Amino acid sequence: DTAVSQTPKYLVTQMGNDKSIKCEQNLGHDTMYWYKQDSKKFLKIMFSYNNKELIINETVPNRFSPKSPDKAHLNLHINSLELGDSAVYFCASSLGRPSYNEQFFGPGTRLTVL
Amino acid sequence: KNEVEQSPQNLTAQEGEFITINCSYSVGISALHWLQQHPGGGIVSLFMLSSGKKKHGRLIATINIQEKHSSLHITASHPRDSAVYICAALSNFGNEKLTFGTGTRLTIIP
After folding, report:
1. Which residue in A2, A34, A43 has the most chain B C-beta atoms within 10 A of its own C-beta, making it the best mutation to test that interface?
2. Interface of A with B in 13-42 (CB under 8 A)
3. Is residue B37 classed as helix, strand or coil in its secondary structure?
4. Do residues B45 and B69 make contact, with C-beta atoms less than 8 angstroms apart?
5. Phi (first) and psi of residue A97, to 5 degrees
């Protein structure tokens, strides 16, 4: 069974569209994250939720909106997609605060904006 | 200048060689992570350490808090170790976010 799953794995869309990426973890973790990996393979934190509460919100355009309906899910909605949004987006989860335990990563969603 | 620097950026070695990847950071941290990104793109956490040394199989991670430096060692390297290795510093203030290094691409030749 997959510990941290993301859907879809690939997403190709036109500029200006709105899209969502879903993330689910079955590890019983209470902290979830979204990371962006750009074309140079550089990873950067976008958001983090602990017990459905937003704890990290980095300098991300407000076109990006995370939603955590429960502790096992953290979805990422992106409005008005731009070419620069093309990247691989990774979801991750951990038990407790980030400083307590290692993080488990999902397989990534490759977003291509045309 | 990135807050987390890794060296080397690329490393090619023969199977069986002892591998060392270095990570230096300039921020105060509560922990340092070592991650492995497979050629297929998946990311796996290898270690999380805040002091001393940890060992898992052929992998060893060390950290020197005073010098703000960590190393990842691989003994008896194997082609399946070929991957990108990423260190990430967990800040010790505020929101405890991870800041990532740029990664080291390791290629082990049979």
Report:
1. A43
2. 40-42
3. strand
4. no
5. -65, 160
For residue B43, give the amino acid letter.
Answer: I
Using an 8 Å CB-CB cutoff, list chain B residues near A56: 95-97
* Tokens 């290795």 sit on residue: B85
Question: What is the spatial distance between Cα B71 and Cα B88, in angstroms, rounded to a whole number?
Answer: 12
DSSP conformational letter for A85: G
- Specify whether the CB–CB gap between A19 and A111 falls below 8 A: yes
**What pLDDT shows up at residue B16?**
97
Nearest to A3 by CA among A78, A97, A76, A95: A95
> Can you count the helices (H) and strands (E) in chain A?
0, 11
CB B80, CB B57: distance < 8 Å: no
Q: What are phi and psi of A84, to 5 degrees?
A: -70, -10
For the stretch A27-81, pLDDT in tens is: 999 999 999 999 888 899 999 988 888 888 887 889 999 999 999 999 999 999 9
The answer for residues whose C-beta is within 8 angstroms of residue A74's C-beta and 6 or more apart is: A23, A32, A33, A34, A47, A49, A66, A67, A68, A91
Q: Which of A70-74, A97-101, B66-70 has the lowest mean pLDDT?
A: A97-101
Average pLDDT score over residue span A108-114: 97
